[in-house]
Amino acid sequence: MSANSLPEGAAVWHSLEVDKALDLLDSNADSGLTPQEIEQRLQKYGPNELEETAGRSAWEILLDQFKNIMLLMLIGVALISGFLDLMALREGRLKPGEVPFKDTIAILAIVILNGILGYVQESRAEKALAALKKMTSPLVRVIRDTRLVEIAAKELVPGDVMLLEAGMQIAADGRLIEQSNLQVRESALTGEAEAVNKQASLKLPEDTSLGDRLNVVYQGTEVVQGRGKVLVTNTGMTTELGKIAAMLQAVESEPTPLQQRMTQLGNVLVTGSLILVAIVVAGGVIRDGGFKNIQELLEVSLSMAVAVVPEGLPAVITVTLALGTQRMVRQNALIRKLPAVETLGSVTTICSDKTGTLTQNKMVVQSVFTNNKTFRVTGEGYAPTGDFQLDGQKISLEESPEISALSVACAICNDSVLQKEQGEWAILGDPTEGALITLAGKAGIEKDQWNSKLPRVAEFPFSSERKRMSVISQVEGVATGEADSRGIDPAIAGFLQSEPYLMFTKGSPELTLARSTQIHLGNHSAPLTEEQRQKVLAENDLMASKGLRVLGFAYKPLTEIPPEGSDEASEQGLVWLGLVGMLDAPRPEVRAAVQECREAGIRPVMITGDHQLTARAIATDLGIAQEGDRVLTGQELQRMTDQELEQNVDLVSIYARVSPEHKLRIVQALQRRGRFVAMTGDGVNDAPALKQADIGIAMGITGTDVSKEASDMVLLDDNFATIVSATKEGRVVYTNIRRFIKYILGSNIGEVLTIAAAPIIGLGGVPLTPLQILWMNLVTDGLPALALAVEPPEPDVMQRPPFSPRESIFARGLGSYMIRIGIIFAIITIALMWWAYQHTHAAGYQGNPEAWKTMVFTTLCIAQMGHAIAIRSNNRLTIEMNPFSNIFVLAAVVVTTILQLMLIYVPPLRDFFGTHYLNLQELGVCIGFSALMFVWIEGEKIFLRIVGKRAV
């Protein structure tokens, strides 16, 4: 077979015999490929590397910031303002001391600042693929042309024969040719931490899920122990890792709800502004009978355009989100992408991995079956403290000596170490064996002490073919004060007559039981009856049906140390001890978090690579699913069309034995159903789904770099409960964003209407310059808005369903509030403007006739202070609230008022901003009119309370 006729990756390698796979790839297990074949295949398949598609450059990201419609309008305003200043400069119409182009410079500075803010948020380079590339091994040993050589991993081609040994990172996907006690950790791909025992001789069904393909190995996974010979079947982008890279790059980033709402807001404001400008200009032209006052009309239009754009809003939103990230970090949630803070508040579905997020990632023994009795075991994690319960009642170990006997076997037939680190119990070694040491500790059996009582002299190690391991120990007489004549500990006194050695065996319950002929009862052994055998098997099935991982234990007294390799003969005639059932136990705080989710209208879903029985047991225990709910497996999902999955996705809360593409399909199906999805994950396999999800949540402790780079948020404690806390914070942030948008835009509408009214009612000139409007929008609006951003949460924030992520920014009455308050603002200010104009143009007035404009400017600014105080609550009156519950609002009001007065009474600032001196009477009138705004809003609350309506 030539290189040009090699299979294109369509072959299901795990379903093929080794010889068939070698034949398909025209390779030889002993001699490998020839140099000519290697060259041909390199030409056809290319190097064994992950390929990267080009993304947006830094310049493209920066330029995209200035495509925002509000910034484009401001740029247009700045250019027109600059042109008018240039004309005035040429014609000598500038007033003494007036600085030309100051409006243009100020507006362009705001545009540039907003552009930079947007760029900083978007410019994080996508590093997920770079992290994926780190997972590929740099060097690999292969057989080529009958010789063993070491080559760069990128030179591997399909058909190469690759050699594996402990500690290696696998460089390509391949079909096992042969193996010896080979264990591979595939957690990066499957999400399950336990190493997989590989078997080359298997031929598996085509629909076998990724985690159950025991005869193949995958790029990026790690050899834990043993050795193997592998036929390379896929390289580069055709490997499972390559498919993940392709999926990552195919996922397009969607704008967040906040970004969509801000775009909608900009479109509405700019459109409304342009319509209003057109009306004012057309009305002025009609009134004047021509274009003789076009410059004045242009100045009015410019002021209106600047007034309608909330220049401070992007900065306020950015600071609000940044403050939200700080609060979330204190709750162990690290936000990587700023808009994700608000997006969390819109989540309707949380898809969570099981291991380590819903569970402790610590195997804990739940149940023990010995001497025909089932004991429940209590305790959390690896702490060797807990009780043994029979029928719900705590029992003493003296009453049930068989527990101590079984616990000795758990401690001795074990290669792990239990130790205390920084106040936490931790395991060095296999988590399953760690659970067994912890069980022994709960029974008072300490491994270190028993290693001296029963020192190991030989062993038959675990292998995937035997599915068990045995340890041979020498019996040391240790005087305990309660021992028999030989000083044997009472826990094992019934094991022996005069034998100097004991063999302890653990492994598959069925296989270990099949080799047992006796059973240990209390302090002695007796023949194992068929009835007892069936009872053990039935209990094993019951434990397995609850999702427990079950191990069987037995022992055998020996007169001599068995020779090496005699395991088949030695592991016969065993004495059965019992069953131990363990589970990666749920985190205790997750049950309450799941309940809080449901109360908040958020649906939790479990998506795991683990077996369906285990997944069902954990999900039912936590309240994610009910007894009897359907579990959808990866095999079933594989056979479904996208339409069928979409029909079922709202009915299934547990997905088991899933592969990377399944997770991505589940997220996409939920999104097509209109759900707003948060997805958790820690492995490489999770990265495409994390990127596709509306909120991708990576694990900070167990997560790979790939998953973290693809995510929006990282859980520093890997805890599901932290997601719920972060969701609550997201809701608070969104509520506060709506609050200060109401505050800012209500005044902006008032400004626009006031400016438009001046020429219509026949007052000379524009009441506000663009620079003064910028001051209002940035300072007198901006500072209180920032203070409103830290308003504490409402008490019912997690007792209501999430607001639709697709709702308009103007939804739930916000738009009508802005228009209503804007009109009231305008009425108050226009009334003041009319009075001020008459006052400053009256005969005998001593001040500057233009001072009416400063009175309008001052009234608008101080009225906003009353607005800020009143808007803190939608329903409660200001006198009903603690004024110090948000001290920042009070501080912002005081500071902003002082700054506003400085613009009137500090000469350099007065000259720069074009204001005029006001006497105390004029200032008092401004404050009086401003107070009407506060009175109106408080009056609205009273009215709504009387008619029984809830405010926005």
What does the model show?
Helix 32 crosses helix 33. The chain is 46% helix and 17% strand. Mean pLDDT is 86; it is low at 1-5 and 478-485. It contains 34 helices and 28 strands. The chain is α+β, with helices and mostly antiparallel strands and 952 residues long. Strands 10, 11, 12, 13, 16, 17, 18, 19, 20, 21 and 22 form an eleven-stranded mixed beta sheet that branches. Strands 8-28-27-26-9-23-25-24 form an eight-stranded mixed beta sheet, sandwiched between helices. Strands 1, 2, 3, 4, 5, 6 and 7 form a seven-stranded antiparallel beta sheet that branches. It starts with 17 loop residues before the first helix and ends in a 5-residue tail after the last helix.
In short:
With 952 residues, the chain is α+β, with helices and mostly antiparallel strands. Strands 10, 11, 12, 13, 16, 17, 18, 19, 20, 21 and 22 form an 11-stranded mixed β-sheet that branches. Strands 8-28-27-26-9-23-25-24 form an 8-stranded mixed β-sheet, sandwiched between helices.
